[in-house]
Amino acid sequence: MLDIKAIQEILPHRDPFLLLDRVDLLEPGKKTVAVKCVTFNEYFFKGHFPQEPVMPGVLIIEALAQAGAVALLSQEDNKGKIAFFAGIDGAKFRRKVVPGDVLRLEVEIIKQRGPMGVGKAAAYVGEELATECELKFFIGE
């Protein structure tokens, strides 16, 4: 299990854009299961939407990408590098994510060739699927 300090040693993201609270499972280069505790105090709820706060789908995708980046950047050859988006395929949003939800972010690296690769990603609230997609990435300096 990785706490926020350990995550910050791997990822370059910082507040307000670090969207992981902890990592519960890490298989470097293969898989990450991370957690984002969604609170009413998140900056994006001020405008999305004040009358019915909903976590923007693009930020759920970003949280999944950060979870995938932990798997990639925890590999010895990738330490100190940055994982960039190269594409997002098949994104589907199955339920709203609202204050009080705990997102479980699961990313499995299904293909990697050189600095390019693909991760299968899913975000859950409890056992309910909230978001799924394939994330394409590029590892850069």
How would you describe the overall organization of this protein?
This is 3-hydroxyacyl-[acyl-carrier-protein] dehydratase FabZ. GO terms for molecular function: (3R)-hydroxyacyl-[acyl-carrier-protein] dehydratase activity. It is an enzyme of class 4 (lyase). With 141 residues, this protein is α+β, with helices and mostly antiparallel strands. The chain has a single domain, classed as Hotdog Thioesterase (Thiol Ester Dehydrase, Chain A). The chain is 17% helix and 43% strand. The chain contains two helices and six strands, in the order H-E-E-H-E-E-E-E. The protein has helices spanning 4-10, 57-73, and strands at residues 22-27, 31-37, 82-93, 102-113, 116-125, 128-140. A six-stranded antiparallel sheet has the order 1-2-4-5-6-3, covered by helices on one side. Strand 5 and strand 6 (128-140) form a beta hairpin. It is globular. The two termini are 26 Å apart.
Mean pLDDT: 97
Q: What's the architecture in CATH terms?
A: Roll
Unreliable segments of 5+ consecutive residues: none
Radius of gyration: 14 Å
Class inferred from helices and paired strands: alpha+beta
Number of helices: 2
- Beta-strand residue percentage: 35-45%
What is the molecular shape? globular
Q: In CATH, what is the class?
A: Alpha Beta
User: What composes the largest sheet?
Assistant: 6 strands, antiparallel
| Helix and strand run | HEEHEEEE
Identify the CATH homologous superfamily. Answer: Hotdog Thioesterase
Domains (count): 1
Say what the CATH topology is.
Answer: Thiol Ester Dehydrase, Chain A
Beta strands, count: 6
Helix content: 10-25%
